[in-house]
Amino acid sequence: xxxxxxxxxxxxxxxxxxxxxxxxxxxxxxxxxxxxxxxxxxxxxxxxxxxxxxxxxxxxxxxxxxxxxxxxxxxxxxxxxxxxxxxxxxxxxxxxxxxxxxxxxxxxxxxxxxxxxxxxxxxxxxxxxxxxxxxxxxxxxxxxxxx
Length: 147
What we know:
Elements: H1 12-35, H2 44-74, H3 81-113, H4 117-145
């Protein structure tokens, strides 16, 4: 897939970085709330619902700004620029949603099974989010670019 549209490979660090940052931010919020006793495992669905709503707003805002930037600066003169920008922007929305949900659920699950959420949070969340964001990226590219 990357050989067919080589430009896609140059945006992988941005996508994985955005996912890792969103997941880490969500986990920090949840870990803080856990340590202060503001939330417990039984409130996992309320936490996920809140983070989902926040991720929609963050993802759409980031994707819209990025879409304009891609068309004006990064993909100017590129064949299929609009479709490539669409792939990257939709991937950002999906990645942010996934990362916020993963980032907020893993600390709650870790605390439920007796692990310290602060110790496992960032490395595990970054690894999971990086892997899943690439799957989202290639899935969206395959659907939109018919690769």
